[in-house]
Amino acid sequence: MPTSNRKRAASRERPDAEPRATFAQLLPHLFADVPRMIGIIVVSIVAAAFSLAQPAIVSVLITRVQSGEALSWLLWSLVAVVVVGAVLQGYQHFLLQLTGESIVLNTRRLLIAKLLRLPVAEFDARRTGDLVSRVGSDTTLLRAVLTQGLIEAVGGTLTFVGAVVAMIIIDPVLFAVTMSVVVFAGVAVALLGPRIRRASAAAQERVGDLTSAVERAVTAVRTVRATGSTEREEALVDAEAVGAYRRGVDVARVSALVVPVSGFALQAALIAVLGVGGMRVAAGLLDIAGLVAFVMFLFMLVMPLALFFGAVTAVNTALGALGRIQEIIDLPAEDAHDREEAPLVRLRGPANVEDEPDAPALAFDDVSFRYPNHVVRARVAHERAVARLDRAQRASGRGRRGEVDALYELDAARTDDPSPLVLDGVEFEVPRGSRIALVGPSGAGKSTSLALIERFYDVTSGAIRLGGVDVRSIERDELRRQIGYVQQDAPVLAGTLRDNLQLGRNDADDDECAAVLREVNLGGVLDRTREGLDAQIGEGGVRLSGGERQRLAIARTLLAAPPILLLDESTSSLDGANERAMRDAIDRVSDGRSLVVIAHRLSTVVDSDEIVVLDRGRVIGRGRHEALVETTPLYRDLAKHQLLVPGG
Length: 648
Ligand SMILES: Nc1ncnc2c1ncn2[C@@H]1O[C@H](COP(=O)(O)OP(=O)(O)OP(=O)(O)O)[C@@H](O)[C@H]1O
Known about the structure:
Number of strands: 10
Bound molecules: adenosine-5'-triphosphate
Strand order of the largest sheet: 6-7-8-3-9-10
CATH class of the largest domain: Alpha Beta
CATH topology of the largest domain: Rossmann fold
Number of helices: 22
Number of domains: 3
Strand content: 5-15%
Helix content: 55-70%
CATH superfamily of the largest domain: P-loop containing nucleotide triphosphate hydrolases
Low-confidence stretches: 1-17, 349-353, 397-415
Mean pLDDT: 78
């Protein structure tokens, strides 16, 4: 494949490649608050009038001095005009900053609202740090450039127009001379615009990469320390930091060209005005008062012009940042992926009670599934790039920029291969009130099955039915209200015990929270500090043991009291006491519920109503423990390894 095609294919596959926004997309952000914008325009007009009055008064003053007339009130009015003008400018500046802050707030709200509603697959394919940096750094950049650049330049436009009119009135010839210099500078700055935009988008992307690298290292800090890979991670983050620095310098280099161009424009215009103006005064075509006023107007013209040139940089930088923001805002939210042909069904009550009384609570009907191609490719690319970095580090002793650049470079030749089937014709049922266990080796597709029930993804073919109804025709919120899902290993959020429990039910009071904790054998956690429910459990629940975390998550789902519970058992090894506590908790929650448990320890599930054995995405055995030991060799091996049958 030719390099250009390969690059194009790669950039299509990389979700965050070269996002761009147009000027039209910037306008709605600017005019989100119309009344305030009108206020700014009014203040700007008045401020401009006060500025423009100054040269006019000075000109009259000079004429009066020349003719020996009295000045008294004119002098005071000049002082008043200068003071009021300055106050108005301060107020205008404040209003502009306020507008900038509102723009950032609105943009952040849009972005956060969309981020929290993106399909799960988007999170698989993107890097968390990069998403986070769009909310933080890109929106901040948008504000900085909007307030410091564009809006001030818009505010200065009135002064600019007034100055132009006044200069034309004073001396059209001198004005023509001035403009020829200014137009030259304007063309030069306009030509630089696209380069600034490209450089700035690249710089912001690098900041996203940097945040991702930091996030990766910090979230896995225990693994990083335990494996002695601090230096390796440091090199990786450092390479990203250097990348961000280099792209930042690129922006500085391009935008630095704007400064001399506008400086040159001012100097050249001043020299031209003084030279040509002086000659015109000597020739009697212009008086001294007129020349002084003209020069003052020239400064008034140049100031907004400099702001305007700065705004070109600002707008182009803003468009780079906005492109990255807009890319997320434009992504379809999770619900937008719903099947249109299937009419939505509103469940009349908990699915396993009322809908189709004879249908099982859950049923997998010939379900096959492959992860979306872009998700799989992002994973493969990431793994491959990290492996390459490892090799490079081993070879050179330190991380190299090019290797990190390769992090998301994809092997374009592979882009058309469909991703492999992760589930293949899976069939099983969960009768109401029963407990079903999914077992099988790592990678068999157990967690994926639960993710499909929750509709984090939709099946590729076949159907999953809840109370006889295809889950794809149930509104996601409603579906998820029927299901409690306890994920593997880290199912709690930073915050207090109460915060975590109330995720299950917002209005649960302290007594209910305490009762449910005791129900899952977490009374000890509640009593061990004086803070009780207000005890902080740390980022990801680090202040709890693996088993406690999982039981807290079970307690949370109990508060929500869903008719169906999906439990992905913790893979971390539990001590005897914890394991017993977990089994008791599961026994209690299974009362009157339909339960699907992914078991890594067969001891948790030997007494299930049915055990489904998965291997490489296929069901290779179904039945009770005793029968499976006889009929399914893989299950027999698992049981042997876990000492549940003799002969292991
Ligand atoms: N988000 C994802 N994107 C792409 N592929 C994935 C994703 N999650 C899992 N896979 C792949 O799907 C297959 C099944 O994974 P799954 O997590 O369902 O297995 P599992 O049986 O739950 O394993 P374990 O017992 O180790 O948790 C694996 O090959 C895995 O690499």
